[in-house]
Design brief:
The complex is a heterodimer of chains A (338) and B (496). Chain A is α/β, with parallel strands linked by helices and 338 residues long. Chain A has one domain (32-136, 179-338). Chain A has helices spanning 2-15, 17-25, 37-42, 121-124, 148-157, 160-175, 179-196, 215-218, 232-252, 265-269, 279-284, 296-300, 317-333; strands at residues 66-72, 90-95, 100-102, 109-117, 132-134, 203-205, 212-214, 256-262, 292-293. In chain A, a hairpin with a 6-residue loop joins strand 6 (203-205) and strand 7 (212-214). Chain A starts with a helix and ends in a 5-residue tail after the last helix. By secondary structure, chain B is mainly α. In chain B, helix 10 runs parallel beside helix 19 (466-483) and helix 13 crosses helix 14 (330-348). Chain B starts with 5 loop residues before the first helix and ends in a 13-residue tail after the last helix. The chains are: A alpha/beta (338), B mainly alpha (496). Chain A binds chain B through residues 1, 3-4, 7-8, 10-11, 14-15, 155-157, 160, 163-165, 167-168, 171-172, 175-176, 184, 187-188, 191-192, 195-198, 201, and chain B through 1-2, 5-7, 10-11, 13-14, 17-18, 21, 40-45, 132, 436-437, 439-440, 443, 481-483, 487-488.
């Protein structure tokens, strides 16, 4: 009976979102990204590194009368950046997959920043963004709904991946992420790489085997890759969407709309891997683009691998600091003159 | 849920522990609920189709048993038509639509073809939307919308009503037990296709915990997982790279890929069957064996006594024999045999490649019988007892079967013919293009050799000695962990 209860608890904990979140609240669920997203996939010990905790950059800086609203991705998620990093009186962030209602303060300069990593730029700029909704009355953020009935509803109405892949990932993290299992995973990864020259199919090694990338970035047959051909007409459509987004939000009350495309790690570390499609350059330097650009490529390329985590596809504290400096310098210069 | 997943492993542990914790009367309820959950992880709404067929056949079984004379036959026909109708709609509707369109376009009636396409799409999309599935824009994008396991549990349900009709099986009174007969989770999505005489009584029985059964079941599961994740999914890397880009491959690569596929499909499907049979055995249930060293067969008919045994015996008992079996004239026998194999090919998938695969096996069978009759008429005998001749039979049977797998695996007919052209015009100076390096290719070949040797020497791994059982089980589990290829490959036969 005890064995049954333990097995049932593990099964429910892995398959139910609310149970998993509950267990995480009791610190029973390890952080499977603690050594980086690329290490999490590959388990290659030579790329194991604790993720850096970066110091806030603007906590004590003077806050100009600027409000910064961001539609961004994991580079700017809560665990990596927050309001203490920006010289702005107001800072709000939403992910490309979520929505955010904002009430603009006309006494501040309201700036909307569209931030995306290069690999997702094509999908994010394929349509006019509408993640931010300008409202006249503030509404409280809706917390994620969890609970047994929500789980049941999701089971019946959700996609197959929610019933198969999500529980699989949760179970893997819940049961097989302790130190002993980490060692076994690393042994397995090392054996397969040494004997069979093979890693997890979602990651790719650089030619000198010193860097780890997402295969999304390196496989030229995938649309996300910086070596996948990018036709001119698609660039044109992306520019149209960006301009339409900027127009929409200027009409809604924003003073400026900015754009920043963070280069893939491959772009700055191993650009000679294949015929680079120059997405960043073709968008940012297009004469028809009507957004201001924070040129992340110019900021991060000089440092190359030094600005990116060893075990992760994201920037490290140094790279992040360089980009934040560029954004904060622009925020200061955007301050309205008296 | 997929067998090769953590979710299934934990599900199996929970269900088995709960099974042995419950009193007898609660057990079939637990298994039925667990099977419902197992099925709904794929697409929950499709369970309604399953329940519909269960309800129809449950009622049909009771009425057939009570009815007399002609009414029994009518009820059987209604039950069979409803089962085949549901299967035909989800599996073959798109295939037949596309072929009728091609026919009318060929006859110079494109408007008729377009009309058929529009009407069929509208009908299909109406049904898909009812089940919460996204509508499709064209049959050319996808022409099969198959609820998982439909081909398997439909045949299992049909065998029930046929056996009740024949009087060899009593109609099941308990709706839940009948539902469990159709839905028993180890065999629900890819067989073995059971007979009611084999299993129905087991669902009424009380099985005490038996440590020997548990060991035997777990060992069979471990061996099945090993064949699937270490051998089959590794070979799949080479096969997929070649067969998904046929024009870019040389003949030697295509030959190696075809050879690898021959073992991939065996390890994949027999691995699944071992997991299913082993999981059932742990709880005390005995399911039929589905494979018995098929590549040791000395003739095509011998091969079909060893490969997917539950399906081949189903076709023999419910199609070939009712068509006359061996009781009709020779020409009619040959026709029936060829026809049954073509239908078997179509059962595997709504594509001409599968039909040709089946037809080739039918042709092989008929040709072998014609040859045997000729030898007999001319008083000639083959040296059956000579070892060299037996080896020749095994190798030639293997070669003939391997060639049919080209059609089974190829994405299109064109690809299949290109593969055969490539193989028969290969040059031994070519080099094999493979995503695996030399060491892994050699490892793969070694694994296949080890698997064949094991099956020749030790068909069933002994488990009496608990220490030996533990050692072998842990070794297999470790090999699965360290050398398993976990790229979310579902089992090949799940698509049927």
């Amino acid at each position: 009976m005890t064995a049954l209860l333990i097995a049932l608890l593990a099964f429910v904990g892995g398959c139910s979102r609310s149970a998993y979140v509950g267990l995480a609240g009791w610190d029973l669920v390890p952080d499977d990204f603690r050594y980086g997203d690329l290490y999490r996939l590959s388990s290659l010990p030579q790329f194991k590194q604790d993720r850096e905790r970066c110091a806030p950059l603007a906590r004590f800086a003077p806050q100009p009368p600027v409000a910064l609203y961001v539609i961004g991705d994991s580079f700017l998620e809560e665990s990596r950046t927050n309001s203490a990093d920006f010289v702005a009186q107001t800072y709000r962030y939403t992910h490309w997959e979520n929505r955010m209602a904002v009430q603009l303060d006309s006494s501040l300069k309201n700036i909307l920043l569209l931030e995306t990593v290069e690999r997702h730029a094509r999908e994010h700029f394929a349509r006019v963004a509408d993640n931010v909704e300008v409202v006249t009355q503030p509404s409280p953020a809706k917390p994620e709904v969890i609970g047994f009935f929500h789980d049941v509803k999701h089971f019946f109405s959700g996609k197959t991946a929610q019933r198969q892949q999500v529980p699989e990932d949760q179970l893997e993290n819940l049961l097989f992420n302790g130190p002993v299992w980490q060692t076994l995973k690393e042994t397995k990864a090392r054996l397969n790489l040494t004997w069979f020259d093979r890693t997890n199919p979602k990651v790719a090694l650089s030619r000198d085997q010193r860097h780890l990338f997402y295969v999304l970035d390196t496989d030229s047959t995938l649309v996300n890759s910086n070596f996948n051909a990018l036709p001119d007409d698609e660039v044109g459509r992306m520019l149209d969407s960006l301009n339409a987004t900027a127009g929409r939000y200027r009409r809604a009350g924003f003073d400026e709309v900015w754009l920043s495309i963070i280069p893939n790690k491959t772009t700055v570390v191993e650009p000679e891997r294949g015929p680079y499609n120059r997405l960043i350059e073709r968008i940012q330097e297009a004469p028809t683009l009507r957004l201001s650009v924070i040129d992340a490529y110019r900021v991060l390329d000089p440092g190359g691998a030094l600005f990116y985590e060893t075990s992760d596809s994201h920037w490290n504290c140094r790279g992040r600091a360089e980009w934040l400096k560029a954004v904060n310098d622009r925020l200061k210069s955007a301050t309205p003159q008296p | 849920m997929l067998f090769n997943s953590l979710q299934f492993l934990l599900f199996f542990v929970v269900v088995t522990l709960a099974y042995y914790s419950l009193p007898w009367r609660g057990r079939w309820v637990l298994l039925l609920l667990a099977s419902c959950y197992f099925y709904m992880v794929f697409v929950p709404a499709y369970i309604l189709i399953l329940f519909a067929t269960i309800a129809i056949d449950y009622a049909a079984g009771l009425w057939i048993e009570k009815a007399k004379d002609r009414n029994r036959r009518i009820l059987l026909i209604v039950s069979l038509i409803s089962n085949i109708g549901i299967l035909a709609f989800f599996k073959y509707f798109g295939f037949f639509t596309l072929n009728f369109e091609a026919l009318f376009e060929g006859l110079g009636l494109p408007n008729v073809a377009l009309g058929i396409d529009n009407l069929s799409l509208r009908l299909l999309n109406t049904v898909l939307v009812v089940f919460g599935q996204a509508p499709v824009s064209s049959f050319r994008v996808s022409n099969t919308f198959l609820p998982i396991g439909l081909s398997f549990h439909t045949f299992q349900a049909m065998s029930y009503t046929i056996e009740v009709y024949r009087g060899t099986q009593r109609a099941e009174r308990n709706f839940g037990i009948y539902a469990l007969y159709v839905m028993f989770y180890p065999q629900l999505v890819a067989g073995p296709i059971e007979r009611p005489q084999n299993v129905m009584w087991q669902y009424h029985s009380y099985f005490r915990y038996d440590f020997e059964n548990v060991k035997a079941g777990l060992m069979q599961m471990a061996w099945g997982f090993f064949k699937k994740v270490v051998i089959a999914d590794r070979l799949a890397l080479v096969v997929d790279a070649a067969y998904n880009h046929v024009p870019e491959q040389n003949g030697l690569t295509l030959l190696v890929a075809t050879l690898f596929f021959t073992f991939q499909i065996y390890c994949d499907f027999s691995g699944y069957s071992d997991i299913a049979i082993g999981a059932a055995r742990v709880m005390g249930f005995t399911l039929m064996e589905n494979f018995h060293t098929p590549y040791a067969a000395r003739s095509i008919s011998d091969f079909w006594r060893r490969w997917h045994i539950s399906l081949s015996t189903w076709f023999r008992d419910y199609l070939y024999i009712p068509l006359g079996g061996n009781r009709v004239g020779l020409t009619r026998q040959f026709f029936n045999q060829f026809f049954v194999f073509m239908v078997s090919g179509l059962w595997h998938g709504a594509k001409w490649t599968f039909v040709i695969w089946g037809a080739l096996h039918g042709l092989y069978q008929v040709s072998a019988r014609i040859r045997d009759r000729w030898l007999q008429r001319n008083g000639m005998q083959t040296p059956e007892k000579q070892r060299w001749y037996q080896a020749l039979q095994v190798v030639s049977t293997f070669g003939l079967v391997m060639l049919t797998w080209v059609f089974f695996r190829a994405n299109t007919l064109r690809d299949a013919f290109d593969v055969l052209t490539g193989i028969f015009s290969l040059s031994w100076t070519e080099s094999v293009k493979s995503p695996l390096n030399g060491a892994e290719m050699a490892f793969s070949v070694g694994l296949v050799g080890m698997m064949l040797a094991k099956e020749k020497v030790l068909f069933v791994i002994p488990t009496r000695n608990t220490a030996v059982f533990a050692g072998v089980f842990v070794a297999l589990a470790a090999l699965c962990y360290f050398f398993g290829v976990f790229t979310s490959n579902q089992f090949i036969y799940f698509q049927f």
